[in-house]
Design a protein that fits this description.
Elements (H helix, E strand, L loop, with lengths): L2 H12 L3 H21 L4 E3 L3 E8 L2 E4 L6 E4 L2 E8 L1 H8 L20 E3 L5 E3 L2
Antiparallel strand pairs: 1-2, 2-5, 3-4, 6-7
Helix pairs in contact: 1-2
Length: 124
């Protein structure tokens, strides 16, 4: 789902115009960014998501082209954690994902099994 699809879904669900839904989404993103940038508090939507700024320690890495060690300075990153309701929704039931037990995902070859590397091989 991209931003315009999300705005359309929000507008429909909340029974507001797309313009209003887009304004709310933009304000949410802006406020979340400001709070995370300050770093003194988290943005938490109970059961859904938590956004927080974290400090990444300085470390030694390797240049992938030369293999030479390089120093990476400490810096800040954003940690986004899923809440319990979002985790539960992601688990879902197999029927909610569009297939029944033993049938595999849509488009799967019947009787095929997964092998390391992700390819499918026919059963003999």
């Amino acid at each position: 789902m991209n931003r315009s699809e999300l705005v359309a879904a929000l507008a429909e669900r909340a029974e507001v115009t797309r313009k209003d839904a887009d304004a709310v989404l933009a304000a949410f993103a802006e406020i979340t960014g400001e709070v995370v940038a300050k770093g003194d508090e988290k943005v938490t939507i109970p059961g859904f998501l938590t956004f927080e700024r974290t400090l990444r320690a300085a470390r030694t890495a390797r240049n992938p082209q030369t293999g030479e060690p390089i120093q990476i300075a400490e810096g800040y990153s954003v940690k986004v954690s899923a809440g319990s309701k979002l985790k539960e929704a992601a688990k879902g039931s197999r029927s909610a994902r569009g297939h029944r037990r033993g049938q595999g995902p849509p488009g799967a070859v019947p009787g095929a099994r997964r092998v390391p590397g992700g390819q499918r091989h026919e059963r003999a």
